[in-house]
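Title: Comparing notes on inverse folding

I've been comparing how different people in this forum approach sequence design from structure. To keep things fair, I'm posting one structure and asking everyone to reply with a full sequence. Here's the target:
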């Protein structure tokens, strides 16, 4: 029984750090995605104010 208890106690910190690292990376990626979406919305609003076409549509040909 002591062997398994020692094994669990030796692996537990690694698992805790891995879970912590996972949640940190996940939050960073979510913040980046949200920031890019908000920036795209702001850019679309500014383009609309200036009368320019949306960025993802092709430019009109003269």
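Reply #1:
Here's my take.
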């Amino acid at each position: 029984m002591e062997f398994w208890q020692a094994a669990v106690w030796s692996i537990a910190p690694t698992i805790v750090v891995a879970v912590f690292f996972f949640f940190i990376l996940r939050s960073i990626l979510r913040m980046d995605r949200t920031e890019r979406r908000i920036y795209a919305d702001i850019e679309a609003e500014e383009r609309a104010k200036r009368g320019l076409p949306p960025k993802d549509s092709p430019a009109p040909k003269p």
